[in-house]
């Protein structure tokens, strides 16, 4: 009996070490495979750099392609998103994120007011999830027995962003507007304290 328990512990340790050593390729594959299925378009990620023990993580080179029928090179692209998490807070009632940096997000809106690449991506995601998000919220509220975790984010920076528009009226040209740097602090902090 002791040999079976010891063998089980060794197997669990081997699996844990394998997962920890291969977390970044697993995340990359998950983002690309899962994102592509949910959005029904290509989703690519250049690099994942996640450290479970330090609580820091970064995803670099995220690109969400356009649904079929749209001609611009992509719908959304991101140079990097970096998150610094207080690891100890994961087991508490409030998850504490120290810093979030979103660097060079780029959105291309293609189409018209009736149908656009972004509205099609949203429709694809809704179709994948079953479409009725209000029903899912009602089911979660009905459970009521599981307390919701709170989230506190000290600082968020969105920098070097841009939004581009490509419509028929522009005859294939793209109009790009750079976005100013946006900084937010104390998200989720109770205002009474």
Q: TL;DR of this structure?
A:
The protein contains four helices and eight strands, in the order H-H-E-E-E-E-H-H-E-E-E-E. It has 193 residues and is of the alpha+beta class. Strands 1, 2, 3, 4, 5, 6, 7 and 8 form an eight-stranded mixed β-sheet that branches.
Rg calc: 21 Å
Strand elements, count? 8
Query: Would you tell me the structural class of the helices and strands?
Result: alpha+beta
Between the first and last Cα atoms, what is the distance in angstroms?
Answer: 55 Å
Helicity range of the residues?
A: 25-40%
Number of helices: 4
The proportion of residues in beta strands is 35-45%
Mean residue pLDDT: 86
Question: Main beta sheet: strand number and arrangement?
Answer: 8 strands, mixed
Give the uncertain stretches in residue-range form.
none
Order of H and E elements: HHEEEEHHEEEE
Overall geometry comes to globular
Core attributes:
193 residues, 32% helix, globular, 8-stranded mixed β-sheet, alpha+beta, 4 helices
Describe the structure.
This protein is α+β, with helices and mostly antiparallel strands. Helices cover 32% and strands 36% of the residues. The chain is built from four helices and eight strands, in the order H-H-E-E-E-E-H-H-E-E-E-E. The protein has helices spanning 2-21, 23-39, 117-129, 133-143; strands at 43-51, 56-64, 76-85, 94-110, 150-159, 162-166, 175-178, 182-187. The radius of gyration is 21 Å and the shape is globular. The relative contact order is 0.12.
Give the SSE layout.
Elements: H1 2-21, H2 23-39, E1 43-51, E2 56-64, E3 76-85, E4 94-110, H3 117-129, H4 133-143, E5 150-159, E6 162-166, E7 175-178, E8 182-187
Parallel strand pairs: 4-5, 4-6
Antiparallel strand pairs: 1-2, 2-3, 3-4, 5-8, 6-7
């Amino acid at each position: 009996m002791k040999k079976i328990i010891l063998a089980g512990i060794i197997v669990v340790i081997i699996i844990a070490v394998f997962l920890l050593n291969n977390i970044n390729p697993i995340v990359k594959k998950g983002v690309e495979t899962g994102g592509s299925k949910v959005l029904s378009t290509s989703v690519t990620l250049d690099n994942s750099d996640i450290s479970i023990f330090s609580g820091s993580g970064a995803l670099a080179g995220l690109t969400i392609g356009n649904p079929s029928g749209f001609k611009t090179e992509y719908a959304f692209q991101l140079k990097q998103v970096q998150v610094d998490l207080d690891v100890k807070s994961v087991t508490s009632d409030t998850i504490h994120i120290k810093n979030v940096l979103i660097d060079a997000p780029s959105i291309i809106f293609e189409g018209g007011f009736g149908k656009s690449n972004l509205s099609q991506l949203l429709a694809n995601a809704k179709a994948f999830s079953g479409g009725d998000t209000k029903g899912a919220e009602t089911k979660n509220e009905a459970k009521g027995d599981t307390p919701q975790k709170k989230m506190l984010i000290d600082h968020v920076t969105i920098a070097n962003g841009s939004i581009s528009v490509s419509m028929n009226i522009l005859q294939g040209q793209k109009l790009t507007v750079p976005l100013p740097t946006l900084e937010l602090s104390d998200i989720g902090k109770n205002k009474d304290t």
